[in-house]
Design a protein that fits this description.
The complex is a heterodimer of chains A (473) and B (225).
Chain A: H1 8-17, H2 19-42, H3 46-62, H4 64-77, E1 81-85, H5 88-101, E2 106-109, H6 113-117, H7 120-126, E3 130-133, H8 136-144, H9 160-170, H10 183-200, E4 203-206, E5 210-212, E6 217-222, H11 226-232, E7 236-242, E8 246-247, H12 250-264, E9 272-276, E10 290-296, H13 300-303, H14 319-322, H15 325-330, H16 341-352, H17 354-357, H18 369-373, H19 380-393, H20 399-412, H21 415-432, E11 438-439, H22 446-449, E12 454-455, H23 462-472
Parallel strand pairs in A: 1-10, 2-3, 2-4, 4-7, 5-8, 7-10
Antiparallel strand pairs in A: 5-6, 6-9, 11-12
Chain B: H1 3-15, H2 22-34, H3 48-61, E1 65-69, H4 75-85, E2 91-94, H5 98-101, E3 112-115, E4 124-128, E5 131-133, E6 138-142, H6 150-153, E7 157-163, E8 167-168, H7 171-180, E9 190-194, E10 199-200, E11 208-209, E12 216-222
Parallel strand pairs in B: 1-12, 2-3, 2-4, 4-7, 5-8, 7-12
Antiparallel strand pairs in B: 5-6, 6-9, 10-11
């Protein structure tokens, strides 16, 4: 996927001006936030479960090489195959090979962020295989030729009206005068269209929320049941997963399940939580005959042991973006690559380079809500600060930003000069703004005054007031 | 060097460790061997009656319907009743589960019964659960000839029999049930934790039931079993 993360500013401006998008985002924002808060309040010991889950992931990452070995052995014992992929390109080629060996023409796909990360759909199409997204949200954006704008709600940026138009355009075999005004009618149509695709597909591809070393099991959670049909009906099942999905045991997965759905959608448990271990067994009347796991590294092994290791704890619930004021304002596409919101701002520079994605860790107010709601307690704001430091060290910011910072640093290092200069400046501003109490326009502050007034300072600086108070006490 | 070896070597380099370190190997073997549970859940302390109450409450909260019958012999009539109430054809598909085969199907002669995996035309399927989980109202189903996985997803209506004696407090106890019914180390090919009927909120975050899986999930709870 071509990244436009470096154009975050322009992307964000376009998003703010897009009335349809703003309607969709406003609708989603409060639902996610309220549903999560209500559910979390009903789960006894939620904070203790978070601590436990963090400890499990830290332990797993510290022994990841050994858990991978154990996992691979169990998958093999169950009759499946694990394929390691160092890069996105390797992963794509492994998937294509499996599809070719299966003589696949169509592939039914459950929702997978790794598939987006490696740009699988475009690649399969170029090679004559048609992938069909089966998650309703993913299907909608596939029809629109878009990418997901949210980890768990890929079509959150699309309104009902737009879905109706897309369905009329894509489902030409249905009557023109059918009524599609209600979401229920849209869902029923998608269900019927998708049935034939599930039954026709030669290969099913799903992601994985967890991989279990104890049993060689892959776990998916869905509400629709599309992931299960995708992996049960076709002859071959391919699981796409990244290394950090490894979890030691089924009991450990239980802890993560107590965090995932409540943080993501505010459900206690997702409708379908499915544990798959290898292909169809002798005597089984259904299930795939082949079971493959493609394990993607794509830079993750190099994040271990760095200040970014903790981001590998992420269980992709999307709570950080649901609670992010920047995401709420501009939506996911402005981030310009696969992962949006605070997790995207930290993960994207690691996966595609800070030179291409340096704008993302700057798209934050550091309000800290993401870290507060992250079930895995990932210190997202601190990591964004790390990326800003790296960006500065590598001289990636524009000259004006660097000059501004250098100018400020000079004053900060000369306290006497700083105090004198600010006293004069704020004294002047206070005198100028005394009559109205605010400025409508101010040179060098147009970025601020374009959208709102700047309150005039009261006259003395904070430092001066502080010193005054200490003296009078 | 294979991709596998390269990835493992890179992880070890990043961690500054060796794959041969006996202390690390021991820590991993211990965790995988002992599969420690996390802190005890409040649901794990419930008695049988409280588990049953909570299970029904949670299942209904996620829009499953629950019918309670006293004995297994009443299950066929409960199945027929559910189909009638929802104006569905008097037909079900089920697997080869001995617990279902043993039911007195002659008491519902008008009900036509097909066996095997689900076919696209099936309107209703019947499965027997390994367990029900009180903490979430989920039923746990295990794949195999007894309860083919396609029954859980293809038909629009899914009826699941669960014995009150198989209701457990939490997920961990559910796994104990799944393992208790099998010999050997392998898990069933698919284990489904099912929590209510299929749904989607992908269109304007409005929840709609009946996405790709069943529109209805009907649980028949057998109190004496």
């Amino acid at each position: 996927m071509h990244a436009t993360s470096s154009a975050f500013r322009e992307n964000a401006r376009r998003a703010l001006d897009n009335a349809e998008l703003q309607r969709a985002l406003n609708n989603a924002e409060s639902r996610f936030v309220d549903h999560r808060a209500e559910m979390v309040a009903t789960i006894p010991g939620f904070e203790a479960i978070r601590d436990e889950a963090v400890a499990i992931k830290n332990h797993t990452l510290a022994h990841l090489d050994l858990y991978l070995e154990a996992y691979e052995e169990k998958v093999r014992a169950a009759g499946g195959t694990v394929h390691f992929a160092e890069t996105a390109d390797d992963a794509r080629r492994i998937v294509l090979d499996i599809c070719r060996k299966a003589n696949a023409k169509t592939v039914a796909k459950g929702k997978s962020m790794i598939s987006e990360e490696i740009g699988l759909n475009g690649f399969l199409e170029e090679n004559g295989i048609s992938p069909v997204e089966t998650d309703l949200g993913e299907y909608i954006i596939q029809l629109r030729g878009e990418t997901p704008s949210h980890i768990i709600a890929p079509a959150v940026h699309v309104t009902k009206r737009q879905v109706e138009a897309d369905f009329r355009r894509a489902h030409r075999h249905l009557a023109d005068d059918r009524d599609l005004t209600e979401p229920a009618a849209l869902l029923a149509e998608a269900r019927a269209v998708m049935r034939t695709k599930f039954l026709a597909a030669d290969v099913g591809i799903t992601g994985a929320n967890f991989l279990v070393a104890e049993t060689g099991t892959s776990v998916i959670v869905t509400n629709e049941g599309n992931g299960d049909l995708s992996q049960t009906l076709p002859r071959v099942h391919i699981v796409l997963a990244s290394l950090e999905k490894l979890t030691p045991t089924l009991n450990d997965v239980s802890q993560f399940l107590r965090l995932l759905a409540p943080s993501a959608t505010g459900q206690r448990m997702t409708v379908y939580t499915t544990f798959s271990t290898g292909p169809r067994r002798p005597g089984d009347p259904d299930g795939p005959e082949e079971y493959h796991v493609v394990l993607l590294d794509n830079g993750r092994s190099s994040m271990i042991g760095t200040e970014f290791q903790d981001v590998l704890r992420c269980i992709r619930c999307g709570a950080c973006m649901n609670h992010c004021p920047v995401y709420q304002a501009v939506g996911g596409h402005a981030y310009g690559w696969v992962y949006a919101g605070p997790i995207g701002a930290v993960l994207t520079p690691a996966l595609i380079g800070v030179d291409k994605a340096g704008a993302l860790p700057n798209a934050s107010t550091f309000c800290g809500r993401c870290e507060e709601v992250c079930p895995m307690r990932i210190p997202l704001p601190r990591m964004m600060r790390h990326w800003r430091e790296r960006e500065f060290e590598r001289h990636l910011q524009p000259a004006t930003v660097r000059a501004g910072l250098a100018f400020w640093a000079f004053f900060a290092r000369h306290p006497w000069l700083y105090r004198t200069a600010t006293r004069i400046a704020f004294g002047m501003l206070a005198a100028l703004g005394r009559r109205r109490g605010r400025f409508r326009r101010l040179p060098l502050a147009r970025g601020w005054t374009a959208a709102r007034d700047l309150p005039a300072p009261e006259g003395t600086t904070f430092q001066a007031q502080w010193a005054e108070r200490r003296r009078s006490r | 060097m294979t991709a596998r070896d390269a990835v493992l070597a890179r992880i070890r380099r990043s961690l500054g460790v060796s794959g041969a370190d006996p202390a690390r190997r021991e820590a991993v073997a211990a965790r995988l061997g002992q599969t420690p549970r996390g802190p005890a859940t409040p649901e794990s302390r419930l008695d049988r009656a409280a588990r049953l109450r909570l299970f029904v409450e949670k299942a209904e909260a996620v829009k499953a319907s629950v019918a309670r019958v006293a004995t297994p012999a009443q299950v066929p009539a409960a199945v027929a009743e559910f189909l009638r109430q929802n104006n569905l054809p008097a037909a079900i598909r089920l697997g080869d589960d001995p617990r279902l085969n043993a039911l007195p199907w002659r008491t519902t002669p008008h009900l036509s019964i097909a066996t095997g995996r689900a076919e696209p035309a099936d309107t209703a399927a019947l499965s027997h659960a390994e367990a029900g989980v009180a903490e979430s109202g989920s039923v746990i189903l295990a794949s195999g000839p007894d309860n083919p996985t396609t029954l859980n997803f293809l038909p629009e209506n899914h009826i699941v029999v669960v014995n009150a004696g198989d209701l457990v407090g939490d997920y961990e106890a559910g796994w104990e049930r799944v393992r208790a019914r099998r010999r050997g180390a392998l898990l069933p090919r698919a284990v489904n934790f099912i929590t209510g009927p299929s749904r989607s909120a992908d269109i304007e975050q409005t929840i709609q039931l009946g996405a790709h899986g069943p529109r209805r999930l009907h649980i028949i709870l057998v109190e004496s079993a």
